[in-house]
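Attaching the record inline, Q. Sequence:
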Amino acid sequence: MRKIAIIGSGSWGIALATHLARCGNEIKIWSFSEKEMKLINEERRCEFLPGLEIDENIKVRFNDAGHMLGSSIIEIWVTQENNTDKKPLDSHSLIPSQET
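Structure, as predicted:
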């Protein structure tokens, strides 16, 4: 099992997370929306993908980059309207570094 982090809890992020979870991976998602986080974690559904059953291996946090530490892969699925400050997004600016 791999630990995989996804930035963005919209339809693309959840679709990818669902596929990867069904392949046996542990998925951590960083959501820009507290509403989406609660819907996914508490009701195991996504408003953008009605009828999709969200796997228990998917955990979502709201604005918590530290949640993704320890993940072997980080995928970014953010639409432009969610990037409110219009700055380019990359994993180096979003994820705190781990000192070794």
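Residues 80 and 88 are 10 Å apart (CA to CA). Strands lie at 3-7, 26-31, 58-62, 73-76.

More tomorrow.
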